[in-house]
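Posting for a labmate who doesn't have an account.
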Amino acid sequence: MPNPATAPPGTPATATSTGLNIPTIPLATDLNSALIAISVIATAIQQLANAAFNNTAAGGGTSGQGGTFVQVSQQTRPVIISDPNDASVQVEITQVIALTMKNPTTGETWVWNLTTG
């Protein structure tokens, strides 16, 4: 989600793709307006957190197990790790080298690939 736009204090809330009326964060130019902006940000975070919680409770996502993203694909490879002091001591693991996740609600997709350097 991109950063929200800033607007003068008192700007009414605008609808978002989630259907929530998340307020536009007012421009902070002095201490008083900064405190107002912080309050608006706190309210927006609370609204988003409650919406995420309600969506999860209604079966719309997965709770602390990765949010609303779903694993689409994964590539792995076997890796053998040896004890540097005793090469006869080894363990084989499966290393994830590529992962694709998708948000079924928004269609947002992210792809991760292992890079070695």
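Reply:
Got it, the structure tokens are right above this. The two ends are 30 Å apart (CA to CA).
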